[in-house]
Amino acid sequence: MLRNKQKKAFENFYDSARNNDILEPKTTLMLHLASAMALGCHP
User: In the predicted model, what is the mean pLDDT of residues 6-30?
Assistant: First the structure.
């Protein structure tokens, strides 16, 4: 799994992408999928 420093950086990125008022919902969904796939969680 990820080291604490990497895990915290990913969590910060994920939270900022999830809780935004700028990106469209479709773009937010694509970021979620890309993040999951980057960690090896393929749908």
Answer: 85
